[in-house]
Amino acid sequence: MYTKICRTLARACMWLGIFGLVAVICAVSWQVFGRYVLNNTPTWAESLALLLVLYVTMLGVAVGVRDAGHIGLESFLVLAPDSLRLKMEFLIHFLILLFGAAMAWNCASLAESVWGYRLPTLWISEGWKYVPAAVSGVLIVMFSIEHIIALAQGREVEPAWG
């Protein structure tokens, strides 16, 4: 059940990432069109594109953790004996879990501390720049727990699109 929830979340993140990339392309295209055709550069387009890149990147990072696309010192694991390899895999996923928890906590704290400030070109809170990293941190924790459970059960986590 937990794996199904994580897989659904990973797929949702991937779809949001796709829509985010399309939105980035639209924002940048509008900026270029405004600058060179209308001779009136929309100031909000660049800020929106940068904000969307943060969202797309952070969602992609979380999905990369779930689908084991991160750098996990796997070249060293190949050389290790089986008994040590399993312990090292647990350690790697636990350290990634700690990293995700720290990222979620600190980015949420940072978002809260700047929530009263506004991005001048988008007229939204500056805290929205830190929300994607906080959400990604929570997802990284969830996906790391999924990997730890799978290792304990002697299986591997299936990719989101597998």
Automatic annotation (TrEMBL):
Q: Does the keyword Transport apply?
A: yes
Q: How does it sit in the membrane?
A: Multi-pass membrane protein
Cellular compartments annotated: Cell inner membrane
Q: Reply yes or no: does the keyword rRNA-binding apply.
A: no
Q: Pfam family example for this protein? A: DctQ
Give UniProt keywords alphabetically.
Cell inner membrane, Cell membrane, Membrane, Transmembrane, Transmembrane helix, Transport
Where do the TM regions start and end? 12-33, 48-69, 90-111, 131-152
The UniProt record lists the Tripartite ATP-independent periplasmic transporters DctQ component domain at 25-153
Q: Assembly and partners?
A: The complex comprises the extracytoplasmic solute receptor protein and the two transmembrane proteins.
- What is the role of this chain? Part of the tripartite ATP-independent periplasmic (TRAP) transport system.
Belongs to which family?
Answer: Belongs to the TRAP transporter small permease family.
Q: Which PANTHER family match?
A: 2,3-DIKETO-L-GULONATE TRAP TRANSPORTER SMALL PERMEASE PROTEIN YIAM (PTHR35011), TRAP TRANSPORTER SMALL PERMEASE PROTEIN (PTHR35011:SF11)
Instruction: Spell out the protein name for this chain.
Output: TRAP transporter small permease protein
Which organism was this protein described from? Variovorax ginsengisoli
